[in-house]
TrEMBL record:
It comes from Actinomadura soli. Residues 27-305 form the Carbohydrate kinase PfkB domain. It comes from the Bacteria. This is Carbohydrate kinase family protein. The keyword Transferase applies. The keyword Kinase applies. InterPro entries: PfkB_dom, Ribo/fructo_kinase, Ribokinase-like.
Length: 316
């Protein structure tokens, strides 16, 4: 198989445009242009994006034995993701979020709360990972290990080490914005080849507000590459030894953004796809930039992502 995504699986319900903030004393019903339901989370969202970019993908995670889980499985399967690695929990619901998306050009801030139920993600453990699964993959993507704390386990780290010894490449993308969870997730870094946090996550893990200083500090913890995504400012790609890394900045592509939900997942998917095609880190990051720009033009984590050829046209 080409890629295993492992970690957070979330069902997103998105609506746009939602006034920010809503008018006080306004109507009980707000008519919007669009409502979508998507597979999300740093494992499920990335899995769908990877499949749409032409990769063979197996996704591993924990979801509830409920209607939300059935819908998430349907969405992922319809997009070509192998979902046999998902375990169903009877005692927990499928993780889900409700996201009101503001009009174009406006930020939600405190007027746009995201409603989130962590659900079954909290129950994922190394026992859900089939024997030999990671070693059989060319690439393994850890999506949101900060919110799947059950994987922070010596047994799972041993699985990663064994897979890497056979040539499997490991990438990692955190999910949360909670400093305590992110700091705990640093335990994964010695077992990761390429780490892709956003700017706020990198700062929370290192105490460094400057992305380049944060990347250097994260390189010192084990990865060969740290890519800090910077939203509209593009991304910073740092490779090599922490003391003297090669640091490059890639600009974001100019698009009219509708919704940035899932852009990080799309960046990871484009980057991983580049690696799967034998590209170097910097060119793979350019593929990630293009995939993120594609998704930003629609609603939800898989918006506008119709195939690799369309993504690569953006780079021309």
């Amino acid at each position: 198989m080409a890629v295993v995504t492992l970690g957070a699986h979330i069902l997103d319900v998105l609506a746009r445009p939602v006034p920010v903030p809503g008018p006080p004393g306004g109507p009980d019903t707000v008519v919007v242009d669009e409502i979508r339901v998507t597979a999300a989370g740093a494992a499920a969202g990335t899995a769908v994006a990877l499949a749409r970019l032409g990769n063979d993908v197996v996704s591993v995670g924990a979801i509830g034995d409920d209607d939300l889980g059935d819908l998430l499985v349907t969405i992922m399967s319809r997009n070509g993701v192998d979902v046999r690695g998902l375990v169903r929990r009877t005692a927990a619901q499928t993780a889900a979020s409700i996201l009101p998306v503001p009009p174009r050009g406006r930020r939600g801030g405190g007027g746009r709360p995201i409603l989130h139920a962590p659900g079954a993600n909290l129950t994922l453990t190394a026992g859900a990972v089939g024997p030999g699964l990671l070693g059989a993959a060319r690439l393994v993507h850890l999506g949101g290990p900060d919110v799947t704390a059950g994987l922070n386990d010596p047994a799972f780290f041993a699985m990663l080490a064994a897979a890497r010894e056979t040539g499997t490449v490991v990438t990692m993308d955190p999910l949360s914005s909670f400093p305590d969870l992110l700091i705990a997730a640093a335990a994964f870094l010695p077992h990761v080849d390429h780490f892709l946090p956003d700017e706020a996550q990198a700062a929370a893990m290192t105490g460094e507000d400057d992305p380049e200083k944060a990347a250097r500090a994260l390189l010192a913890q084990g990865p060969a590459t740290v890519i800090v995504t910077l939203g509209g400012d593009g991304s910073l790609v740092a490779t090599g030894p922490a003391g003297a890394p090669d640091v490059r900045r890639l600009p974001a592509l100019p698009v009219e953004a509708v919704d940035t939900t899932g852009c990080g997942d799309a960046y990871c998917a484009g980057f991983i796809t580049g690696l799967a095609h034998g590209l170097d880190v910097l060119e793979s990051a350019r593929w990630g930039t293009a995939a993120a720009a594609t998704v930003a033009q629609g609603l939800g984590s898989d918006a506008c992502l119709t195939g690799l050829d369309d993504v690569l046209r953006m780079l021309k």
